[in-house]
Write a structure and sequence with these properties.
- 2 copies of one chain form a homodimer.
- Chain A has 2 domains: about 150 residues, Rossmann fold, CATH 3.40.50; about 100 residues, ProC-like, C-terminal domain (N-(1-d-carboxylethyl)-l-norvaline Dehydrogenase, domain 2), CATH 1.10.1040.
- In chain A, helix 5 links the parallel strand 7 and strand 8.
- The first copy, chain A, is elongated and about 70 Å long.
- Chain A contains 9 helices and 8 strands.
- Chain A is of the alpha/beta class.
- At the A-B interface, helix 6, helix 7, helix 8 and helix 9 of A face helix 6, helix 7, helix 8 and helix 9 of B.
């Protein structure tokens, strides 16, 4: 397929590289910033542009991979070509593109992508949605050329996935940071916690989280929880967080036991 | 070394197996429950007992790996032998053992251990503390026979590690469970989120959490956060959690930017 990438951020970069490696022709890379456009374009053998009005219309697919609030103006500008156009955003519905072009779809990679980190794109879950069966099938075929994990997901489901990803990725990462700071204050290295963090994530690769929940709250160990809260005395936000999360775990655990 | 394991839980099981594999002689395994004692003893070539008063005193080391509130009575019972005695608990100080026996220490594995899961013990951080230099050196040597990662950690530091582990392991696992339930309600499989969870943990193996923080709160994306809170309308606890965690991330991010 001939593909045009609109954007040069994390998703555009990883998606562009994966599509190039799968043998697709990347026609152009657009970015407001010419340097960013050129860098990505160079890596994936494409032309670089920084003026969307001059985009090459000789393409089969526009992939809009820009900030959420830039999707509408971008789709508006590209509307005149009426080519198949997809966005890559979790929190934006398909209807946003449909206002401008009936040939619309979504290609949402459910992974945390950073330019500084290589990722095996083949394992990245790709959530696709198409306006109509033909587009869905085409996007499914395309997605399968770059990933083993392709899911058909509608806009409501995708919004839930995006919210769930905050709980599964953004919030845990923040909690890792709290743990790091607690160690730092006692002159200990974050390195000590890395095996624990990795094993916690590996455990749920073949179990459900509830099955492997451990810790003071899971065993309703009031003495340890009181001691922990005491240690957080000069950190009211962390105390609040500790209490809220522990109470939720206790409640859930008891509910779970009641059901068995 | 001749070693006696008091307890048959997750830590006793993994520690006992690692010590056996490293060539130490496990003399006895004690558990209140004879079946549990026998099972672990069988695996590591030891005798099983369920009466602590009949413990074989021909040993070099007692490892007390029981519930926190059972450590004191156990140490009391073993006091008459005045053999080197360690416990394996994060939240219990060395002084708890010292009341009964000056030859005391701690061997705390900083990992989430389950009987149902194999773990490469060589990568498990082992935090040691001894009453005096000789005991510390001896425990360090012993720990090095089963793990590459041995740390000298005093009782105050160990309590902080134990608290940090709640933030780095127990709470993230609970958040994985929330994410799973959000997906379930929309007929999606937890499988979709597993690569994201693993990558999030892998990212901090060579970066600090702050360096790789992503998500709506990290970029102060008020529109997405408002939409997420709206989606959690019938889950007040999750709303509270979402708000508290997001506000903490926003505050931290801004503080970080101010410092740069």
């Amino acid at each position: 397929m001939r593909i045009t990438i609109i954007g040069s951020g994390n998703v555009a970069t990883h998606l562009g590289a994966a599509l190039k490696n799968a043998g697709h022709q990347i026609v152009e890379v657009y970015s407001r910033n010419m340097q960013n456009a050129a860098l990505l374009a160079y890596h994936i053998g494409a032309e670089a542009i920084d003026n969307l009005d001059q985009v090459n219309a000789e393409t089969d697919l526009f992939i809009i991979s820009v900030k959420d609030d830039a999707i509408i103006p971008t789709a508006q500008t590209l509307a005149k070509y009426q080519k198949l156009t997809v966005h890559t955003a979790g929190a934006v519905g398909l209807e946003t593109l449909l206002k401008f072009n009936p040939k619309a779809g979504v290609l949402y990679p459910l992974q945390t992508l950073s330019k500084i980190r290589e990722v095996d794109f083949n394992t990245v879950p790709l959530c696709i949605e198409g306006a109509g069966n033909d587009i869905t099938l085409l996007l499914e075929q395309l997605a399968r050329t770059i990933s083993e994990r392709v899911y058909r997901v509608n806009s409501d489901q995708r919004r839930v996935l995006h919210l769930a990803a905050v709980f599964a990725c953004n919030f845990p990462n923040y909690l890792y940071g709290i743990a790091q700071q607690l160690l730092e204050k006692q002159d200990m290295e974050f390195e000590m916690l890395r095996p624990l963090i990795l094993e916690t994530a590996q455990k749920v690769q073949d179990h459900l989280p509830q099955e492997v929940q451990t810790g003071p709250a899971a065993r309703n160990d009031r003495i340890t929880m009181a001691a922990h809260l005491q240690m957080l005395n000069d950190e009211p936000t962390l105390q609040e967080l500790y209490t809220l999360l522990s109470q939720a775990i206790i409640k859930k655990d008891h509910r779970g036991k009641g059901h068995k």
